[in-house]
Amino acid sequence: MRRYLLPVLASAFVLFAIVGPLLVPHDPLAQNIVKRFAPLGSPEHLLGTDNFGRDVLARIAAGAQVELFTAVSATLLAMTFGVLIGMTAAYSRGPTEGVLMRGVDVMLSIPPLILALLVVAALGPSVPTLIGVLALLFIPGFARVAYGQTLEVRNRQFVEAAIIFGAPRRSIILGQILPNIMAPVLAQASLTIASAILVGSGLGYLGLGIRPPAPSWGGMVADGQRYMSSHPMLMIVPGIFVVSTILIFSALGDTLRALWDPREQRSR
Amino acid sequence: MSDAARETVLSVRDLSIDFLAGRTRKSIVRTLSFDIAQRETLAIVGESGSGKSVTALSLLGLLGPRATVSGEIDFLGRNLLPYDFHHLTKLRGNEVSIIFQEPMSALNPVYKVGQQLTDVIRNHTQLSVDQAREHAMELLRKVRLPTPKTKFAQYPFELSGGQLQRVMIAMAIACRPRLLIADEPTTALDVTVQAQILDLLRELQSEMGMSILFITHDFGVVADIADRVLVMRNGEKVESGTAVDLFTDPKEDYTRELLSAVPSLDRRVGNRAVQTGTDTVLQFRSVGVTFAGRRGDGIRALDGIDLSIHRGEVVALVGESGSGKSTVGNVAAGLVRIDGGQVVLDGTVRQGNGADASRHSPGVSMVFQDANASLNPRMRIGATLRAALKWARRSKPELETSDEYIKRIMAEVGLGADLFNRFPHELSGGQKQRVGIARALSVKPSLVVADEPTSALDVSVQKTVLDLFGKLQREHGFACIFITHDLSLASNISSRVVVMYRGRIVEQGPTRRILTAPSDPYTRALLDSIPQPDPVLQRARRTQPA
């Protein structure tokens, strides 16, 4: 069953992020100079140790927790506000639509990484700042998806039927339209999680994400870079985690869409 | 008409068509055999899913890679199976042509009509550009496209559906094909236009001597055009024979069933007593509606409509596309804003001078044409019905919303309680429309707007749904605006008919009077255009034009 591969992988990652730090018998911050640069597959340290002798697996696991928490929170925030903006714009039309969607266009026109750098530089790196910045970055994407979908769905006949039977506006938007635009929104969400991990790691690499010594994948790549020629695995291992996580979540979208569709649910 | 002398153009033997659906093979057509002789029109009739269109498309290898076609397709002594696509390309448009249901989607929207026709001609002949253009003009005149010179340089969207179908026919006959496949070519057209297109096809056939394979679900059309008929069901032949035999003496039960389900104009006229309630439910006082046009110019959809609907009466609103009949229904239901006149419902002004703020009309419910689109695909049937009741209860607190009540209403429209937790896509078309009727009924309306509620359904389903609707109307006694393009249907259900044309009411009166003694020429044209499911009558009609 290939369609279950991606959800299983994604769940494995989420599980790893949640319970991983508990299973690895090492403190991600504990330094041990004697055991520095332990190679991959050492009996004590499965993924080796870094230049301070810290267990790489423990750091990856702790990093996964932070990366996932940031990415998912940012995505949920962006989804909530983006969908709200998009649906309001599409359903009300007129001046509200103009103001909201042009605002979204303005936000879209700002290069994401530059904006992130700017805000982090101004406010200082911290997890809440990171989440806020990422959410802000991804609101326009959700707004556009929700806007386009709502424009299409609001003209469908079951919405007319709801109007005729006297449905209040709130229940038309939330009860009738929202469930019918969720499939692409969920796909967008899974793409956004991937992007958020990418941008988060990027900021971490630049030292603007999670503050060291707290582990982050981007920071680990940056640290490992210094020992690239002698101990390439210090850079490659976190790199592999970043890349595979992003790939998994990017590809998950289509599966999510299918799972959301009642037609697919029955025909399984 | 000596059949023996005629050459057989197409001979199909044991045609079987399978489709690959996921990993399973689905058999669509099974061991079908038929012949078409020169100058003959064979109609393949069937309901949706009968395999009639698939059969037609298979003849030219148009089914795509998921289909497996086996058997024998013999066209003028050449077997087309297995497909030789090089050979088929030479055949298509040259010796065998095809016209489709939707001429709008069959033409390329970004090229001018004349250009597309000229291209087709140049693809098939050695003519120079100028010669091809000349030939194209000649063809447009031949299919009697009005003002062919102007239309030649226009884009598809600037032409009406009937005009586009004429262009498609011009393309199809450009190379004088031996066989024309017509896949529901008039289904999307108004009845007056349909009559003209059928006339044109008949004329071209006698002039060019081509054979026609006509795919349709409409027995009226069959009676009008077919020499021979093949009835299909679930991919198999039910019966075949000459049109006259089939209509007068159908051998199979299924054929009989189909024929009896066809709404016929004169069969039931006057069956319904004219109920003249004194109490007015809905009143339109010179209502006008203008829709914003593409370039700021308004389209006048309704122009000074005066209309009264009395309690408990069924009024049929009849007209062709663009007549404004659906707009009347939408205004009554509060979906469309008016810009002139007044709409009074149950004594309250709903729109126009003196109206309260909300356009929503409690007491009006609606049954839609496309039952599928009118149901939220993400809501189970029970939830859909409950939601409508809950909304309606905001202005009608006495309404019940319990599951028991919903199931009782479902039972009333013939839906089992087991469908309560189903999603719309798990229901058949007829069942979905029953849900639509249940929803309209459940809120105890004083007026139901039924907008072509049966036109998307197969003819046999159409009849049962219509009978059900009529029965419920009598039992519950709601007034009804029954919007339809089909006068036969109108005659079966209504006590009064209102005929609309281009946003105005041209004639209204008791159904019997409108059908037997129409005073307006448009009503008369409408009546004359309805093909009757009786080949003898239809032939007689044709020879003596009105």
TrEMBL record, chain A:
Say if the entry is tagged with keyword Membrane. Answer: yes
- State the UniProt keywords alphabetically: Cell membrane, Membrane, Peptide transport, Protein transport, Transmembrane, Transmembrane helix, Transport
Primary localization: membrane
- Subcellular location as annotated: Cell membrane
Q: Which GO terms describe its cellular component?
A: plasma membrane
Query: What Pfam families does the record tag this protein with?
Result: BPD_transp_1 (PF00528)
Record has Protein biosynthesis as a keyword: no
Q: Please provide the Gene Ontology terms (biological process) for this protein.
A: peptide transport; protein transport; transmembrane transport
What PROSITE patterns would the database entry show?
A: ABC_TM1
**What residue intervals traverse the membrane?**
68-91, 103-123, 129-147, 185-208, 236-260
User: What residues does the ABC transmembrane type-1 domain cover?
Assistant: 64-253
Q: Which SUPFAM superfamilies match?
A: MetI-like
Regarding the membrane, this protein is recorded as:
Multi-pass membrane protein
PANTHER family reported for this sequence: D,D-DIPEPTIDE TRANSPORT SYSTEM PERMEASE PROTEIN DDPC-RELATED (PTHR43386:SF1), OLIGOPEPTIDE TRANSPORT SYSTEM PERMEASE PROTEIN APPC (PTHR43386)
Similarity comment: Belongs to the binding-protein-dependent transport system permease family.
Q: What is this protein called?
A: ABC transporter permease
Q: Origin organism of this chain? A: Propylenella binzhouense
Q: What is the lineage of its organism?
A: Bacteria, Pseudomonadati, Pseudomonadota, Alphaproteobacteria, Hyphomicrobiales
Automatic annotation (TrEMBL), chain B:
Q: According to its UniProt record, where is this protein mainly located?
A: membrane
Q: Which Pfam families match?
A: ABC_tran, oligo_HPY
Q: Where is the ABC transporter domain?
A: 12-259, 284-527
Can you quote a single GO CC term? plasma membrane
Q: Which GO terms fall under molecular function for this chain's record?
A: ATP binding; ATP hydrolysis activity
Superkingdom: Bacteria
Q: How does it sit in the membrane?
A: Peripheral membrane protein
Q: Which CDD domains match?
A: ABC_NikE_OppD_transporters
The record's subcellular location field reads:
Cell inner membrane
Q: State the InterPro entries in the record.
A: AAA+_ATPase, ABC_Ni/Peptide_Import, ABC_transporter-like_ATP-bd, ABC_transporter-like_CS, Oligopep_ABC_C, P-loop_NTPase
PANTHER family hit by this protein: ATPASE AAA-TYPE CORE DOMAIN-CONTAINING PROTEIN, OLIGOPEPTIDE TRANSPORT ATP-BINDING PROTEIN APPD
Q: Which named protein is this?
A: ABC transporter ATP-binding protein
